[in-house]
Amino acid sequence: MTQDDQGTSRYSDSQDGKAIESLRLGLVSAPELPERIVNRIADQLPELLGCHIDDRHHWHVDCLTDPLIGADDSTTNVIEQVERIKRDNGWDYAVCITDLPLFRDDRMTLAEASENLGVAIISQPALGISPLKRRLREAILHLVNEMHHGSDGHHRERQQEHMEKSQQARERSGIRNRSSRELMGSRLSERLVPIRRVTPDDEHEKDVDVRFVSATKWLGYAKLLGGMVRANRPWTILPAFRRIVAVAFATGAYGLIFPTLWKLSAAYDLYRFFVLMIASIIAMVIWLILDHGLWEPQRYTSNDRLTRFYNLTTVLTLVAGVACYYAILFVLFLIAVVLFVPASLLESTVGQSISWLTFPALAWLATSVATVAGALGSSLESDETIRSATYGYRQQLRQRKVKSRQAED
Q1: Do 82 and 100 meet the contact criterion of CB atoms below 8 Å apart?
Q2: Global confidence as pTM
Q3: Beta-carbon neighbour count of residue 171 at 10 Å?
Q4: Closest Cα partner for 378 from 334, 333, 318?
Q5: Domains in the chain, ordered, with CATH?
Q6: HEC sequence for 3-67
Q7: Averaged pLDDT, groups of 10, the chain, 409 residues long
């Protein structure tokens, strides 16, 4: 019986008199969202690997969180970093799930694998918004398949035959992928933004045997931004906005005492309400960015394209968070208007007959006015509170580096 580098047995109990070799797969994930998803699927992978990759082995899956993978925005050496981690831990294969966007030859890359090194990398943001758990599980299985069985045409044809024979078992396991050449099964996102399989022939990329890139540029960028915004968890902004909501609601409630808002809400056309809503949301987003230093100057970063993506991600994250904040304010004002504004008084004040839409219109106008006040109220919150609510792990790390470089200047 042989031992691996960690001193553990490479063979499990014998079956029919033959020892069954164990294979170890290591999952190296970035903190927060990639880490959480990996932890949810790790327990499922040993059985899936045995059923759908190679049942001649017992599979073991180890999870490791490494915040330094790609920490300097340079993804060209991630394969080498993961290979070192794989070697140090005595794994047979390693898959890195990074929260960084990957670009190769100006193409947005979802994943790539090296059969020779036994290492693969997946860009979590490039997978889009949802369902991340299923997509990531299928992507990991496919990349291990490529590393274990080979990526050339002959090996893929042989694996295609195997997949067709085990199609029913794959469907029972919830695996949609039916092709030995595709990273994952086809869903709506993959139909809108197709994934192209590439086999690099550049001698400078001799360690990469297969790569999966977005076949469309701008739709691929949109999908990437969606994944980056999800990593920032825009819903976490709301708890940090408690005092801002209080200031905004107090301001709007005070304004409702006066008949000016009542008359304006009755006189406005529908388009004015939309213009005011959009203007108030934009004003609050701009104020948050300027007041709390959320914009990332390009002169302090090493990759202009990534900086643009992260700045756009910041804007979209704030828009999503402020839109939720706006909706909460609207509900609060609607309740207040219905409870405290008598219909007869409202009708006599505006000088015209009212309908049930008059109350939501008044609440809508009050919400837009109060949102501007809430933007000024956001100054009550500390920069650290707003950044923690707006940014996921990766952007917080980038912000700290930018602040450090600004301080050095």
Answers
A1: no
A2: 0.84
A3: 11
A4: 318
A5: 11-227 (3.40.390), 233-408 (no CATH)
A6: ECCCCCECEEEEECCEEEEEEEEEEEECCCHHHHHHHHHCCCHHHHHHHHCCCCCEEEEEEEECC
A7: 42 53 92 91 93 90 82 67 92 93 87 92 90 92 94 90 86 88 88 90 75 92 92 80 82 83 87 94 90 80 82 91 91 90 82 81 92 74 72 71 66
